[in-house]
Each structure stands twice: as C-alpha cells, then as structure tokens.
TrEMBL record:
PANTHER family linked: MUT7-C DOMAIN-CONTAINING PROTEIN, MUT7-C RNASE DOMAIN-CONTAINING PROTEIN
Protein name as annotated: Mut7-C RNAse domain-containing protein
Record-linked InterPro entries: Mut7-C_RNAse_dom (IPR002782)
Domain Mut7-C RNAse: from-to ranges: 1-152
Signal peptide: none
Amino acid sequence: MKFVVDGMLGKLTRWLRLAGQNVVYLGDLEVSTETEDKALIRLAEKEDRILLTRDLELHRKAIRCRIKSIYVENEDIAKQLAEISKQIDETIHIDLWNSRCPLCNGRLDSVGKLAVKNEVPQKTFKKHERFWKCTKCNKIYWAGSHWENIAKTSERYERLMEDPSC
Ligand SMILES: [Zn+2]
C-alpha cells in the first residue's frame, strides 16, 4: 500500500512511515500552492498511491479523476489511523523492524550497537541495545522517551479498532 498525503497531515505521515507504509508527503515536494492539488492527484495516478486528505474539495476532485482517495475526518491521530485502517482493511502497527524513516520515507535498517557509538549521545548509547538507521538520510533511531507516547497512541488506536464508540 502506498500513499500520498496532503500538507495538513504531517503527523499522520510520520506515523504511517513508522508503521512501515510508503508515504509521500506534499510538504516534501517543491510545488507552489496553486498547483498543490494537481501535483497530489498526478502523483497518486502515476505511482498508484492512495490520496489521504483533510480537504473535502480535493477528495471529491480525486474521486472524479478516478483516484483512490480517503477523506480523513478526524484531527486526533489515533482516530485518523483507525479511519484509514478501516478503509484499507489493514491494521497499522508500529514495529521498528519494519519501519520507514518518519523524515524521508527511507527504509530503516537494524544496525549493530557499536556501529552507532560515535553517532548517538553517550547516554543513549549506554541505555539502549537496539538501533536503526535510515538507508536514505542516515538518521539513527532508537526506542527512546518518545516511545511511550507512541505506545499510548497505539493502545488508543487498538481500542478504537475494537470499539469504534470509544
Ligand atoms: Zn531518512
């Protein structure tokens, strides 16, 4: 499953990438505001990507052009993930062993601890055993303090998938 995401969904983009999805974010493309909609639709068509948007007009336009599009109604990230999951009929699960870089969409590779010794803060190096490196931009990731927030959102997402009224 591949996605192209409008400029209002930066946080969702990072989440989907962490969950291993291939996501192009409009904010990363160099297009002028007037041609944004066209660029999104063209890319979705060319690369067979599903458009995710908070813009109802754009969503309707995409559908008219026979582009697969999901109109994202919620602002809350866990609810957004649940919305999309239901539409694509796939669970969205974050697993660093199967992740993409939230910043550039590159694949993450697991790297040996010693390989990152000089690239991460000493405290981090001592505290963590597992590291991942982006194959495209070389940024290094580990399950640091932000991981708790990710886990909390994941739990909320799981609950929403079980009971949509939550
Ligand atoms: Zn990267």
